[in-house]
Amino acid sequence: MSDAPRPVSRRQFLITGSSAAAGAALVRPAALLADTPRRVQDKMRVAIVGTGIRGITMWGREVAEEYADVVDIVGLCDINEGRLAFGKSYIGVECPTFSDFDAMVAQTQPDTIIVTTNDNTHDTFIVRGMELGCDIVTEKPMTTDERKCQAILDTQAATGKHVTVTFNYRYSPHRQKMKELLMEGRIGKLTSVDFHWYLDVYHGADYFRRWHGKRASSGTLFVHKSSHHFDLLNWWIDSEPEEVFGYGALEYYGTNNSFRHTNCRGCPHQANCKHYWDITENEFLTNLYVNNEQYDGYLRDGCVWDEAIDVYDKMAAQIKYANGVQVSYSCTTYSPYEGYRIAFNGTQGRIEAWVKERQPWDAPPYDEIRVTDNFGQTELIQIPQSAGHGGGDTRLRDKIFRDPSAADPYEQFAGVRDGAMAVLVGIAARTSVDTGAPVQVARLTTLNPQPVRPKEG
Ligand SMILES: NC(=O)c1ccc[n+]([C@@H]2O[C@H](COP(=O)([O-])OP(=O)(O)OC[C@H]3O[C@@H](n4cnc5c(N)ncnc54)[C@H](O)[C@@H]3O)[C@@H](O)[C@H]2O)c1
Question: Low-confidence residues of the chain, pLDDT below 70?
């Protein structure tokens, strides 16, 4: 790493500079203060590793457009030089680009690294980024196995750097309302949860076209996808998972078909395959992936019948929490509609919902939550549907970039411990499928599951 002095970070400026600035204001004329141009150092210096679709949209262009007053994107890194160049132009920044992560950090001196690479590589950049003095904002899943998880926990403890895990699912108004009802004890003591997630034959199938269908890259969908759901459970239940028993199988995608090809373009079975998809009809995806295959051979429209697919396409888990709550969870990846069913069972009633995110029939533009009191009445609560997770994406980014000290009444902001607990449920479930035995979460890392989830916000 370079010996060049690091610019004062916006975070340091907010914490250490505010009292000094207050003192200075006493002696500096107001007119002089007003004329002082906003210093570049006042902005958070952010570097992004992984210029795929997530990196250049949610954390790239949208941040460059909506947070330019508080964020400078100072560097971009990816191993695919074509995607890197396209990403830079798509985001619309003038920063340098790198294939070498250490070189990027040394040259651009970021305060914060945003990690949006393939799941199995997150740990490399989280650990190294903290060692080089940066805070981390990482996409879920934080990592894909318990050894990598422990390395992240150890490095975070040793460096004291901050790790944010961007669990945007917590921010949807519908899920937030269920959290609110649980926080206010609406159904008495929560005792069990039924949670079943359905990915449809379009979105679900898309996981099997990409690197997500390979266990070595995604840690299986128990980690890549279900860790979103496990995080919701940890957050709603407000406790930590203690024991997990899992089942999983691959019965639809992969080898479960009589024909296959490498990918959809040029496939001789196009006319017979219900999953045929022409990526070239989408200009953005063509620019991002198809035009850059020459650099790494990655096929974004890979065959869903690929024999190398080795993740489960149906998964189930029983989870026992440290506060005694029991969960029955499942995820199906080839459903006719997309959404989930959930029910919270308490000593005084039940909260339940059937959320449809896409379905081949007309549905009203709101989600419902039914709350039924034991021996009492039932109430239907309607939550209007809206884009961008109902403003949740903006609230998440505001908290990261604009005001890290903003109030967090529903405890939606997640750190390294929440990030670990979410993946540990998936890792435990996957291990349980492999071994046929229940897995104690406490055996996976040094984290000891607590009856009440420790708050990190
Ligand atoms: N929270 C959400 O709802 C949500 C949605 C989409 C994606 N994600 C997460 O975002 C991450 C990225 O997903 P994506 O859909 O953008 O994938 P993607 O395949 O489009 O992008 C991944 C990028 O990482 C690059 N990369 C891989 N290994 C690298 C390395 N060692 N060094 C540098 N670059 C490397 C690839 O070349 C690619 O450009 C994943 O972890 C995924 O789980 C989260």
Answer: 1-41, 387-390, 457
| 80 Cβ below 6 A of ligand 1 | yes
Quick one: tokens of 394? 């903006």
Residue 344's CATH number: 3.30.360.10
Can you give the pLDDT at residue 393?
Answer: 87
The total of other beta-carbon atoms located within 10 Å of residue 455's CB is: 12
- pTM of the predicted model, to two decimals? 0.92
Per DSSP, which regions of 109-240 are E strands? 112-115, 135-138, 163-165, 190-200
Count of alpha carbons within 13 angstroms of residue 139, beta-carbon side: 24
The structure tokens listed for 371 are 């709350």
Decide if 195 contacts 258 (C-beta within 8 A).
no
Strands 163-165 and 97-98, by their bridges, are unpaired
**Counting beta carbons within 10 angstroms of the beta carbon of residue 2, is it exposed (0 to 12), middle (13 to 18) or buried (19 or more)?**
exposed
Compute the radius of gyration of the chain from its Cα atoms.
23
* Ligand 1 contacts CB of residue 118 (under 6 A): yes
165 to 301, 336, 382, 386: CA distances (angstroms): 28, 31, 29, 23
In a domain, 277, yes or no: no
Q: Residue of the nearest CA to atom 20 in ligand 1?
A: 52
**Measuring CA to CA, which residue among 442, 150, 443 is closest to residue 451?**
442
Angle between helices 122-131 and 101-108 (to 10 degrees): 30
- One domain for residues 65 and 175: no
